[in-house]
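[Meeting: bench + compute handoff]

Bench side (C.D.) handed over the final construct sequence. Compute side (W.E.) agreed to return the predicted structure before the next meeting so the bench team could plan truncations. Sequence as handed over:
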Amino acid sequence: MARLRRRACIALLLFTLFVFGTMMGLRTLKHSDGFSDLAPGLELLPVMAGKMDRRSVSRDATASPGQVRPADSNTHAVLSNSGPEGTIFYDVHIFYYTWYGNPNMDGKYIHWDHILVPHWDPKTASSYPRGRHTPPEDIASSFYPELYPYSSRDPDVLESHMEQIAASAAGVLVMSWYPPGLADDNGEPAEDLVPAVLDAAYRHNLKVAFHIQIYRGRNDQSVHDNVKYIIDRYGEHGAFYKCTSSTGKSLPLFYIYDSYLTPPESWSELLTPAGSHSVRGSAYDSVFIALIVEERHKHDILAGGFDGMYTYFASNGFSFGSSHQNWKAIKAFCDGNNLLFIPSVGPGYIDTSIRPWNNHNLRNRVNGRYFETALQAALDARPEVVAITSFNEWHEGTQIERATPKRTVTRVYLDYQPHGPDHYLELTRRWVEQFNKEKEQWLV
């Protein structure tokens, strides 16, 4: 009798293990299983109901630069793509700057020799040094790039940048952009670099979106002209980033920096269907993302006709928008008004190399823990898209680009030690992959 009971128990145990194994096998099946018509490395992304599926981009895996297949029934909306550096995700954007120059490529240093910006209060300004940096030993950054004070025009630098961005798993670089002939106060015009950036991005399966900067005379009408110029000139390039609407229509996406400087009444002339020079429904219709700094800006952004908002600044607590504790509330406001919320996360912040009086906004990297805290706060808000500030804004110390230890007679630069130069690229990849794993659960 005892032997019979043991056999029954063994049989019951084996049956239980079989059932458990079968259930676990079924749970590991992905939504994309069985979709053999997808190109290798591409995952199917369902189109959301509502105004805009802003998470997705259309990509033809066989397209060449300058040739993009229109979004029709044969074009899949994809969230990721596989390349030599690993899988990249198009719902993670990263801010990118092309304003650097050096004597080898440009005849002089550009931006690496940035001035020390004086404080607006003359009394405070008198307590801090003035002048400008003198590269290559003294550069306008608290960190020193592994590629040295490079030129954004150097093809080898561009190639290295695209390789690093792809290694981080971010799929869309958001390029700082000024109209032809214009630049920031410390730079030189660089609009002619756009084709080289697009081509380099394409070679690494990356996409490029445009971050329209503030410039003298910018208003709703000039932005209309900017959008028309960009779409006419670059809209058919294989690396040009587009979102896919719920109806399958592909639309470009533009970030508008310091959008609050133009009143919402003016923006509505461009961004609402009844506006005097509206782009809505035209060949230049796009997804427009405004910068939220103060809490009141969210209502202005809505009234202006924007499609969403981003926070940009990597200094937690610097502004209402950049404060991690406010992200869930901003996301709830956006959800209630059919807007896209893009929290911007950064590895730290230190801009005292160009603003020596701004110590109070310094945010120590703590060997990556500050970055991880910001990334977790972004994930907790359950956004559709996350932006990284930045790949290479060296002046403000928000870069994840490779840095190297450097000591001169007069300066000791910060670095990523005890970790290696790839530390923040690796951290980004780990969290990007986690973001997309969690998002799969949100969408179930």
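W.E. noted at the follow-up: The radius of gyration is 24 Å. C.D. will use this when planning the next construct.
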